[in-house]
Amino acid sequence: MDAIYIVSTVLLPFLSFFLVYLLMPPLIKFLKSKGKVGKDIHKQNQPEIADMGGISILITLTIVILMLYFLLHLNYYLVIFISGLITGIIGLLDDLYNLGGKLKPALTLLGGAPILITLSYNPHPALPFLPSTSLIILYPILVPIGIAITSNAVNMLDVINGATPLLTMPIFTSLIIVSLIENKYNAIPILVVILASLLAFYFYNKYPAKTFMGNIGDFFIGGLLGAIAIVFRFETVVLVAMLPYIMHGFYVLSSVGRLFERREIKNKPVILKDGLLYPSDDPKAPITLMRLILSAGPLQEKEVAKVFFFMSCISSILAIITSFLTKI
Amino acid sequence: MKRNILFLLELLLISWILFVFFTYGIALIVSTLAIQKYWLYRILNSIVGGILFISWLLIWFMITKRMFENNLKKFKNCD
Question: In terms of Cα–Cα distance, which of A178, A228, A181, A192 is closest to A9?
Fold first, then answer.
């Protein structure tokens, strides 16, 4: 391994961490002064919290991923970044203008364009017990759908303080482990810088949150995750690691029966009573992952965050096991 | 919290097992699309793959919905 690779894998994550960490306090002040706040609905007094804190991750990763690209000269990094940037911009537009439940997922399909244009995909993904498949016809159709699914899924499950960092950090960690196992060393630098930025953001997003990620952050992280899965051929690993997201999206869509915006839901799936979150017994309320978790007993918000993290850790371990199954 | 975690673990494992086995079946059928000489075979394979995919989703949804409803019932009785 050459020196530049080691420097980029070791030093740039520190830069990524500290940039997000230092950017957050002035950004929170700025967002509050501009009135970009959201109500923290799972607290008794519903305080107003700075929204769109994910801007710090977008700014930081723009700088750090471009540095990675100039240091390592890997075009893949640029493709992944542009895919994430497209979905991030759609998230920003949704934060500012509310794009609606149908236009937003449709627009995120555009995130697949850089991958399709540069042909940065391999239509022979490895699946459990099938080391190589031939999806020449289907794969290019699945690329934009994959980006749309990952970006919207990350956004849909950002329902409590710290949800996105707690759910995505184990996924990125499992991808680093699989990269090491499968000798995909080129994937590691970009994964580590994203992980470092999420860790720094977690300090401001954890219970009780000082800022929310906002659609901009959720869509950006989801878009990056989808693009990494396609470009570095981690499709199966990401699919399994994202099981909590897939479960949530599937339950919600099948119980509501259509694409919708979170604000449209009148029958709330979860009820706050004496500091505890209870599942709603309203048959019209959508089945969400949180309602499913709470059906086993009421919990405090920070306990739900812990369960989310535990769930993501388990699905990430299952993803690593699945990566072994693709070699059989 | 232990009960919640155990319930989730059960859900995750069921979902993973269903995913692994159905993906294998679906991929096996769909990956033959490009190498089929005749379009009729391609269409037939697509239909079989599609049916497998829908049945996977249905089985998954029915199992988890039942688990959720049972839990909710138990929870109401405890209340």
Answer: A192
